[in-house]
Amino acid sequence: MMTDIETQTVATDEPEHPSEGGSQATPGDAEARPRSSEANWSKPVDRLALGAVPSSAMNLNVEGRRLVGPVQGFGQLWQKRYRVRLDGADVTPEQVISTWKEEFGSFWPKGNSFYGPITGIAPGEVALLNLAAPGHQTLSTGVMVIYADEESFTFMTPEGHMFAAWITFSSYRDGPTAVVQIEVLLRSNDPFYEVSMGLFGHRQENAFWSATLHNLAARFGVDASATLEQTCVDRKRQWKNAGNVRHNAAIRSAVWTVTHPRHWFHRSGEA
Amino acid sequence: MTTGTTSVEVRRLSPAAAVIEVHGDITAASEPLLAEAYTRASDDGAKAVLLDFAGLDYMNSGGIGLLVTLLVRSQRQGQTLMAVGLNDHYRQILALTRLDEAIGIYDSEAAALVAVGA
Fold first, then answer.
1. Is B72 on the interface with A (CB under 8 A)?
2. Which DSSP letter does residue A239 get?
3. Which residue, A22, A151, B35, B55, shows the most beta carbons closer than 10 Å to its own?
4. Where are the beta strands (DSSP E) in A149-176?
5. Whole-number Å distance between alpha carbons of A219 and A251
6. Residue A147: beta bridge partners?
7. Backbone conformation region of residue A96, classed left if phi is above 0, alpha if psi is from -120 to 50, else beta
């Protein structure tokens, strides 16, 4: 890693695995991989188009939005790696990723919904997310699958999402053990989110993905806690993108909730 | 320099510009190699660094993440990061990820030099 970055490492529940540090086989290494990545990447899209979603879902902030990555975001640039080891599980990285793609939303913490396409997680597919937000609110946003192969898949977020981010879900072998990893490269999307990240957002984000990995490990019969390695890659905030706040999905979702009282009971029923 | 299926070569294009030729794959595993190449490319005060992807065989999403870290580094050092030698597929990836809004893409080294005035 470069020498002039701030590095902070935090173990969430268990100490980090001693093999971490880059020498092990990582997702995307050469073996058994097609020599062209063309089929693995989505084609460029100008605006997102969402397929059918259940009428009970809050469907906001996805249709017609543009994708945003670290170049378009506002806040500090963070790289986070959450990992869990499937010690004792007789499973290959390909099997882990296949199961993860098929049952993606089922591993999320309670109160969060992933409305993916019936065709599954594949390059170019768009999903609606209804996320549990503070104050028993629901935040409606989405993701697009920009990359997928047999050992990994990557989401990119739309305007208004908490983060301008790429989120890569992958699995690889460390000796006989399958390791599962979520790597997030993110900037908060606007000043409102950046303040929230400092107050509770990072903690909430870390808890979310740690719980997801714990649930995924349990799917393979493993009771394990996730570890977290996080690095602030760029401390600078991109003030030229402060106007992203006009798309803020949290604000828009809150306004929608206030103006749609029927939804209050729906959320109460979920809790 | 070579690591796994990736190799890079650094050469000076002008007093103010250097080229990093990438051959093989760019994945997350390429990070130490590319980071060191970037350091060498910047050693003599280059104001522009060109990434030459003409020899690129394969790039996954980990490789795209790596380009962002190079971009941050170039911005911090007041350098311009540019790309040449991209085929249509890799141009589409940079458009999809919107990295092309920060990394200038050019058809040739000569065109990149003209654009950056180096």
1. yes
2. G
3. A151
4. 152-158, 163-174
5. 35
6. A41, A154
7. alpha
What 8-state DSSP symbol labels residue A150?
Answer: S
Distance CA A248, CA A258 (A): 16
Q: How far apart are CA B23 and CA A143, in angstroms?
A: 32
- CB of B42 within 8 A of CB of B77? yes
Spatial separation of the C-alpha atoms in residues A103 and B6, rounded to whole Å = 34
Cα distance between residue A257 and residue B100, in whole Å? 37
DSSP B4-42: TTEEEEEEEEETTEEEEEEEEEESGGGHHHHHHHHHHHH
Sheet holding B104-106, edge to edge: B2-3, B6-14, B17-26, B48-59, B80-84, B104-106
How far is CA B34 from its chain centroid? 9
Nearest Cβ partner for A149 among B4, B60, B97: B60
CB contact (8 A) between residue A27 and residue B60? yes
- The reported pTM is 0.87
* A→B interface, C-beta within 8 Å: 1-2, 4, 22, 26-30, 33, 35-38, 40-45, 67-72, 77, 79, 146-147, 149, 152, 154, 156, 166, 168, 183, 185, 233-234, 236
3-class DSSP state for residue A151? coil
